[in-house]
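Take our chain:
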Amino acid sequence: MKRFRFSSILLRGILSAGILFLPALPAPGLEIGSPGHGISQGSLVIHPRLEIRGEYDDNIFLTDRDRKEDLIGVLVPGIALEFPWDENLLLLDYQASLFYYREYSDQNHDDHRLHGRISLLAAPFSLKAEDTFLKTSSRENTDFADRVERTENTGKAALIYLANKFQVQGGYENYLYRYDERVYRPYDHTEHRGILTGFLQVAPKTKSLLEYTYSRILYRDNKDRDGYYNEVRAGFIGEITSKLTGTAKIGYQERRYREDSIWDDYRGIVGYALLEQVFSREHDLRLAWERSVQESTFAGNSYYLLNRGWIYYSRQLDHKIRGFIRLQYSNYRYPESNLGREGKRRDNIWEPEVGIRYQVQSWLAAEFKYRYRNRDSNWPEKDYRNNRFYLELSAIY
């Protein structure tokens, strides 16, 4: 089938490396354990799973006016394979998301996700690699009014050297974006990133870090939009107190497109931070912040600057019941006005979410969730409000 014709070099590399380094599978036959423990043969464990979700969406097209509502059924089958040996690990995971609309059946579609990860240890070196392939047409966090079918692939690999209190990590990341319809082909591009990070142990469970990134951005058809950036960030990772852990990186990015290009360059602050406070097994709190630059699909703009912060709190309400609440705020800033209009586009998006999860058994869970999304833009036609209710039942063998 066309949508599965994918040849990710890194994903094939993960599979090949796993096969190369795996010891011979033991002879014993297949063992079917109890639910939640999987199906095993020696060290290999297979976990089939299934999610069934019902949704009510009061604005399925994410429009400001003439909103359409619908009931949506979602079937999410998946399977995960886990193979640990010695201090190494190979993971493979696949899931499909099948969407069925009650009234607007022309919106029926399916998404596919394939993920692979391998960790190899040969002290003082370790190698980690992962690849995620996504076939999707989601409207969320895009500028597309319609569902746009596309392929997104993210590959990452890192070689790590650890010596006493000092650690060096060399990494490579590849981001691939491909659109199925010809009209969107100008947005097809690939990003290649080389990352060098040094860590220094400053406390028993905390490391300071200094990181340099070089990224090359290459468009398949729109060569005038090719670019690159240099980025330097510093920060820390690890345990701040016995109950507070976190990661923080802040620095400066210089992003340039071709010398004769009409596209805007960027020079400014970028960063990321995540803090988690675990008060007890009953409740925990997470705070996060991100400032990043992303390639844009909004006409006339090479990029957008994203500032985002969120807070998440969960609490055990009963032996098997856990409640959670999340609030996220995102600000999107575009460098250019276009379409003959004055004023650069600015979007503010608020996303509160609340839910409750009932762990029926260790392998079976039910969840109810409500999410509200409000995009408030200085371009009024980009505004929309969206209420969504979810009821989900998930099981893993």
Q: What stands out?
A: Residues 32 and 39 are 5 Å apart (CA to CA). The chain is about 5% helix and 65% strand.
